[in-house]
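Notes continue from the previous slide.

Worked example: a multi-chain complex. Inputs as given:
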Amino acid sequence: MHYLRLIARNLFLSILLLTVISAGNSLMAQDGKALFQSNCASCHNPIKVVTGPALKGVTDRVPDSKLLHAWIKNNAAVLATGNKYFTDLYNQYNKTSMNLFPNLSDAEIDAILKYVNSYQAPTAENGGGGATATQTESDNSLLYGILTIILAVIMLTLLQVNSNLRKLSDDKEGIPAAEPIPFYRNKSYITLVILLLFVVGGYYLVQGAIGLGRTKNYQPEQPIFYSHKVHAGINQISCLYCHGGAWESKHAAVPSLNVCMNCHAAINEYSGKEKLYREDGEEVDGTQEIQKLYSYTGYDPKSGKYTQPGKPIQWIKIHNLPDHVFFSHAQHIRAGKVQCQTCHGPIQEMNEVKQFAELSMGWCINCHRTTKVDFPDSTGNNGNKFYSIYEKFHKDIKAGDSITVEKIGGTECQKCHY
Amino acid sequence: MSKKYWQSFGEHSNSEAFQQSLENEFKEDLPLDGLDGKGLLDSKTPRRDFLKYLGFSTAAAALAASCEMPVKKVIPYVNKPEDLIPGVANYYATTYVSGGDAISVVAKVRDGRPIKLEGNELSSITKGGTSARVQAAVLDLYDTARLRHPKQFDGNVFQEVTSFEAFDKMIGEAMSGLAGAPVVLLTATITSPTTKQIISEFLAKNPGSRHVQYDSDSYSGLLLANEASYGKRAIPSYRFDNAKVIVSLGADFLGTWLSPVEFTKQYSTGRRINEKNPEMSKHYQFESLLSPTGANADNRYTHRPSETGAVALALLAELGGNVTAPALDEKTKAGVKKAAKDLLANKGKALVVCGSNNVNIQLVVNAINEAVGANGTTINWAAPAQIRQGIDSDFTSLIADLDAGKVGALLIYGVNPAYDYYDADKFKSALKKAKTTISFNDRLDETTELCKYVIPAPHFLESWGDAEIKTGYYSFIQPTIAPLFKTRAFEDSLLKWSGSTSTHEDYFKQYWITKLGGVEAYEKALQDGVVEPASSSVSGGSYNAGKLAEAAAAISATKKGGAFELMLYQKVSMGVGRQANNPWLLELPDPITKATWDNYVIVSPKVAKDKWGIDLSDRRQADKFEVHPERNVVKVKVGNKELTLPVLVIPGTHNNVIGIAVGFGRQSAKAENTGDYIGKAVVDAGKNAFAFASFNGTTIEWSTPDVSFDTTSELYKVAQTQTHNNYEGRTEVVKELTLEDFKKSPEEIIEERDEELKPYGGLKKFKEQGTLYGVYDKPGIHWGMSIDMNTCVGCNACVVACHAENNVPVVGKAEVLRYHDMHWIRIDRYFGTPTGSKLDEPDEVQVVFQPMLCQHCDNAPCENVCPVAATNHSSEGLNQMTYNRCIGTRYCANNCPFKVRRFNWADYTGADSFPDNQKGVVSDVTMMMTDDLTRMVLNPDVTVRSRGVIEKCSFCVQRLQEGKLKAKKENRPLKDMEDVRTACQQACPSDAIVFGNANDKESWISKTREDNEHRVFYALEELHVLPNVNYLAKVRNTEVIEAKEGKKEEAAAEKHA
């Protein structure tokens, strides 16, 4: 009987645990923020006009949610119907057409819209949305930490009081008590402290060992202060203009200097409104940095000619994968349609690039587990026709199931290690 | 009295000394330095100090190693070439040239480095086929022994010449000091029309000068015979694809004779079986040693080399020629009769080729071909081959001129007579009499080190050029990398020295723009790599039998050979030794002997029995012989020339013939220089057998009618990768049947398989019923490979291709001796002989080649035993190997029924972070392969494995991933052949390997399995490992399968018993 109860309790606990985990998973899948970051953030900001309009309040501007969903999924089709609001919008933004998102489900779009509408401008002057979020998180943990310490102190005090009281009552009742042992020689305390040290020390040791060779947040000083914020953020230069290799090759590659000079032959000074600062707060003279580029390329801006032989810039590599990992940018950008920001973070907001993601295997695998395969729809259109050979899964897709990269072998060893 | 066991007499008698020795456990004092008889703690280095140092150094090492991440740089181009994307390979059409050989290839260039050669499919000659040597040529580019700048011999040593101008000045002075003495250009066969023109311009500038072409594997006999028979000193194109009956008189046309890649391609079309209408060509081979070609023959007959002419005459006589042949033994005679009958029955669809370099024999062969209607059908005079033009007598007269001091300057390009001429000493002494000697060879080889000036020519992958492989069939050479060293093209030097201001590149460009009629046509030609006539026609030459009677008389007068005759031959790997310092080729097992790194004397089992009493037909003796690599060493004597070599016993060798491969034994004048001058890999690799060739007055022949050999007391280890030669009638591994049987009962193989699988549910239910494991489906892609044992000729091109593609390491001879060879694909060679054969009859030996690689079993036994799941299965049917997980237990290798898993016993690839700490651990050759220069050949898409991990065939997963990505990028399903091909498949000159997605009903692999359903089988199928590699049974166009008949008889005998 006792056993049965134990089993029942364990069962209940594990079911509870599973429910919580799976609930967490489904919550994650519909995480509007993540979806926004990976799908929309390259052209939209909730409260700023970027390539496209600021999105906050879009549901008020377009109350017909069906229409809005249709627009997000396939804006070309909506434009074709001649909808006035959207046609005007299209013209207002210089006829820059929006990407198609046929893969987004209605639930996902709702999650995005919800995130967008509830978006608050970041309070801190420098930080973006991400920074704010981490701030709140660390605030919480501090709070919990203080709370834990207070509770622990109370508990210890109460324990001490309890033992004193017992001693008093024992004295009163005449029960001989052993000589009180100071708490630092109390074996229970010592055991407790050792256990605690072991757990905490072990945790940090394991974390440290796992972290060996990982360089998240690595942000070295580069030979030229090249600001992605100025280029990709403010001036909206497409990532592929410079990192064209990402479209064709495994390497995105740092652009050769002739690519820089396509623009900088004409742009020889920095006249942006925003002042440039290094991470340590030192102000940077943008024009001076452009001059550095000229010295590398051997370009004389006065005569407009290359007067010196060029020499390559030795940039410091930030994103390093071990040699035994095969990673192809083309596979992710072109076949997988992953946004640059998914792995590189809000690069368009970085003056100095820092490593955003962990670039660990677990991090890779997690994405492969949750990312859906770009299957063609039932008519054989859209999606990537390469996947049309996965006939087995077609039924599942029709039934509304989603097929993740993992299901077609995306987490197998030789997808990346060979 | 109780029993007493004793180990020594001391123990037995319990002597005092024995008692004492019992008390002292250690016979000698323990070697503890610095103890001075005091206790451990008081000694100079007490235990505590030791522990302190240990702790400190561990902590220091840990800190130094792990806490600081190295700063990595990324350095982009200043000005990136437009057509280059870092990480994406570019392909350039070019041409492999080596001696006269020229094969159109496509070089894969990754980030500026050529790393792989593939056949050029636009060439109608080789149609994308390659050979082992072509595949290995890319490694020669990164050879550490190549000369890095021009040199001049100052009387003692070779001094560097710092600039080409200085060199030109020296040559100018030397040339002007000749005082009118003629200049001679000594080259191998030149197929390049531009080079020929440059040479003729150079000759015109130097009156009295001449150009001599010297081929170390000479075809002068054939050239001269054709001159007599057809009025053209040329070699016609052979069309093996048009021949229904092929008779080869000692020509190894699938291995080393003339143009093996082209011939293999053609031959395979006649050997491929169409199940609906099973027909195939009939191939007779008459030879003395077992060649790869003979191994593929349907009927094979052996004879003495001195009888080659007699066999040819007998064949001509049988065909109705008005000649009488000298006597032959009965078996050969019967074979000749049979061949003649088939030839006559297939007039106009028959071809006879002969490997002899004797003019008379070739004259008879021409008459035979005339008689069987080959001229104009299987022999094409419309486009003669240009790849051999050297005439032996030209070279002998050059030596005479040199010796007489009649030659002023000798310019040597691409030949090495000091090594490969039969009378090298004579050449060497004659060479000294030339006033000036200039070599253009790429290293200080045997000839170059005797020259005064050396100006190395670049490798073909660094050069411009062209080759006219056949008349009207051009193949182009364009550089795939800037010259690695200070080298200058031979043509550039000639232009400079004939006073031209043009460079070779401009000259070449101008020549072809004019010839092709415009820059566009020229650029297209470079892009395609070939220019060929719009239509190919087959036409004959006008035949003249004038010299036949004379030839027949000469042959009849041939002296009879002695007790033993010697036959020299080429290995498919080494050839005549031009690519000698190529570890990929040296470690490549010979198709027949399976030996690496050496040459040796080949004898028949009967000789072994008679001479050394080794009876290989006796199982015990054979096993004992096979497991030990030590081989008897013999001293071979021809006249006053001697050579000491180990002996290998090879069935199929004529009982009165011994064979030695040429191309080995490269050695500098001072033996200790060999490693630096010629290359580290050639040191101690075999002996030079060229000296055993003989000059018959007109041509050089590679056989000697009288040879003797004495056994020495020495033993020598020969590194063979396969020592057991018989598949013991195990039809689960190899299935073969005769064409007749196959026609009669096409279901035979299926029935056989059903019989084998009967205990496990029979063929139909086997997959589900034969296992306890679940059956998993493979959605999307299921990779599969099919290997046709009928078309596989065992040429080994795939093995080297795999080396290049997958960074397979070279281990060196000492490691091969321990069976540590690393080849991911090997070609198993089995001999088949009748049951109870005494192995005395060389003619009854049949050979099967079976390429064996990881079978990617869907129910792989290796996967189940890996304790760390380093090898597991992919949803696409790949048996994956994850090197970073592997901890080296080798359980998988032990559990693999095909023995295809390879273990890195040492750091063969230089993955270890400390330079040179592997010296002495791995061989010098392996060290050479880990040189920074040599490592440039590595494929950057494939991990270089470190010590202690297992590796094996991955089905070229990097290519599969690339192909899939290509399809995804183009938004379409995977296309067979276009997107994915494995390296072995692409290299195969006979298209024996088919690979693709077996789930796709339209793919080539599915079609192959469907069209050949009667021949499909899986090796060791009854194990239920469910391989993804299938084989197609070998069909022989002969009367009996020797090995199988034995099995059948055995089975029948068992039934009766």
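Summary box: Chain A has five domains: 1-25, 32-117, 142-211, 228-349, 361-415. The domain at 32-117 of chain A is CATH 1.10.760.10 (Cytochrome Bc1 Complex; Chain D, domain 2).
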